[in-house]
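Tutorial, part two.
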Amino acid sequence: MSRVGRLPIEVPAGVEVEIKGTHVRVKGPKGEISHTFPPVIEVTLEDGVLEVKRLSEEKFHRSMHGTARSVINNMVEGVSKGFEKFLEIHGVGYRAEMAGENVVFSLGYSHNITVEPPEGIAFEVLERNNVIRVSGYDKQVVGQTAAEIRGLRPVEPYKGKGIRYRGEYVRRKAGKAGKV
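Running the prediction step on this input gives:
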């Protein structure tokens, strides 16, 4: 049995879960997410507790068991609490500013870059225009949006300039003469 897959998922108050075969829809105060799983997974709801079961011990069924449970748990957590990622901007003259719901980046290019948030995502610029918070209820979309913003100016290894995740370690290289 999968250790992750057999863990029960507590459904908090204010969150509705609707199961139709292999299609699961979760609705909460922050939004609504739905996902369709392969027919090898069975999802049941009893007394506010979701359980995920698999049909057999085949390799594909075992691999989908823990994955399906994690996806459902992220759906429940997302519509109740939400997810967020923080990005830090390092470099002289690099900054971000809010323009309505959009974020405008000055990253050393000849032009500014405007990023519009996808549906269900909110941006916030913090700490002297050098930290961006990406928040939303869908973990996959929050992570994808943060990765796309990071890709606008990836961190270079010589001076450490660019956009990085909060807490990300950047391995630095020595310059031409081996200076540090």
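The first helix runs from residue 59 to 80. In part three we will examine how such features are distributed along the chain.
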